[in-house]
Amino acid sequence: MWWLAWVVVLAGAPAAAAGRGQPLRVVSFNLYHGGVTSVRWGDGDLLERRLAMVTEQLRQIDPDVIGVQEASAGRDRGDVATRLAGALGYGYVRAPAGWRWMPWLVHGALGFDEGPAVLSRFPIVSSEATALAPCDLGYRRMVVCARVAGPDGPLDACSAHTSSSECEHRSLTAALRRRDRAVPLVLLGDLNAPPDRPGIRGLARKLGLVDAFAAANPGAPGFTVWQSPRESRPTATP
What we know:
This protein is an alpha+beta fold. It contains six helices and 13 strands. It has a single domain, classed as Endonuclease/exonuclease/phosphatase (Deoxyribonuclease I, Chain A). Helix 1 runs parallel beside helix 2 and helix 4 runs parallel beside helix 5 (198-207). The longest helix is centred in the N-terminal third of the chain and has 15 residues, at 47-61. The N and C termini lie close together (12 Å). The relative contact order is 0.19.
C-alpha cells in the first residue's frame, strides 16, 4: 500500500511488560479499505481475502493490543473492526473519520465510513476519540484512545491515521499531550511520514516517545510502503 506505519511507545513506561513475565505485544496495521466506492463497486482490493489472512496472522502473533487504521464499515462488508475483534475475541473501540463538506454524500449515498480503531485482549475501561485540526484539508482525521486495564496497571493505547501534513502531526501531538501523563502511552499509527520529518520529530520529542521498530531494528529501512494487495511477490519499499 502507501503508508509508513509507526509504533511508538512512551520512553521508560512500565507498560513494557504485560505481566505473565512477557513483554507487552502490540501491532499496528492499516487494513486498507479499498476506496470509498468499493462498497458499491469492486472488491475493496480483495478485502475479504486480506481480512482472512490478517485474522490468521494476528492469531499467530497473539498480540495484546492492536491498532488498526482504515477500519471501514459498509453495507456488504459490515463493520470490519467489529468483525476482526469478534474473530480474535478482543474488545475494541473505533472512531469514524470523514469528509468535512457534505459527509452525507459518502455516508448516506454509499453507506461507507472508515477510521482508526484499537483492539485489546485486556478490558477497555474507557475511550476517547478526538478530531484532529482540519489543516485546510478536505478530510477530517481522528485519533482514538482506549484506556486498557493491563495486568501491570492502566495503559493508554491510541491509534491514528494522518496524512503527511505537519499540521496534522502537530494537532495529534497536542491531542495526546492533553491526556494523563501518569498513564503509559502506546501510539500505533499510519502517519505517512518518515521519522526525520519535523512533525514526527516534534511528536516524539514532546511526548517522550520511542520508535519501537527503530529501537528493535537499528538501521533497518522498514519496508511498509506500496505493497500491492494483488501481488504475491514483495513490492514494498522503505
